[in-house]
Amino acid sequence: MLPALADGGRAMPRSVPPAYTQECASCHVAYSPSMLPARSWQRVMSGLERHYGTDASLDAATLQQLSTWLQSYAGTYKRVAEEPPQDRITRSAWFERKHRKVEPAVWQLPSVKSAANCATCHTGAEQGRFSDDDLRMPAGLSARQRQAWAD
Predict the structure, then answer these.
(1) CB–CB of 62/99 below 8 Å?
(2) 20 to 30 A Cα–Cα from 42, which one of 20, 61, 67, 97?
(3) Backbone angles phi, psi at 4, to 5 degrees
(4) 110 lies in which domain range?
(5) Based on the domain organization, do 60 and 118 belong to the same domain?
């Protein structure tokens, strides 16, 4: 069983395959499987040779292990039941709703780089925790952006 979080999400499962951290977290946060529905994970894993512009291919055994793990912990609760465009977490309705006040320029800051760089602002991202209580302001915000962040 996964621990419930205040925002209705799920933390990273307790038993994470070492290959998931080794392979996936080498380029980005190793996202909790609960952040996408099973069909999205299925498509992501079947297209690793063109994984958002990068070849992230895996050997057959690792691919099978990680695919099975992702499917078994995939999101099933209301906020991730729909499949986001291009199976991108950052294009999901819940992600866009939670980040609607973030100005597009913030995603381009050198300290942020993209909406997929969760750990810049979410101190618990590596553990699958995205509570509003654990946010930190990214470096490089203008005075106006800092004020908007504080509101």
Answers:
(1) no
(2) 97
(3) -80, 150
(4) 99-151
(5) no
Question: For the CA atoms of the chain, what is the radius of gyration?
Answer: 16
Per the listing, tokens 């998931």 go with 20
Buried b (16+ CB within 10 A) or exposed e, 97-113: eeeeebeeebbebeebe
The answer to the question of residue 91 being in a domain is: no
Let me know if residue 13 belongs to a domain: yes
* DSSP-derived 3-state class of residue 102: coil
Q: Name beta bridge partners: 4.
A: 10
CA distances from 16 to 22, 59, 64, 67, 127 (A): 11, 18, 14, 12, 10
Written as one letter, the residue type at 83 is E
**Tens of pLDDT along the chain (151 residues)?**
333 343 445 578 888 999 999 998 888 888 889 889 999 999 999 999 999 889 999 999 999 999 999 999 998 765 566 788 999 999 988 889 889 989 899 999 999 999 999 999 998 888 878 888 888 999 998 888 888 777 7
Q: Tell me the residue type at 151.
A: D
What is the SS3 assignment for 23?
helix
State the Cα–Cα distance between residues 59 and 78, nearest whole angstrom: 33
The tokens describing 22, both together, are 């080794």
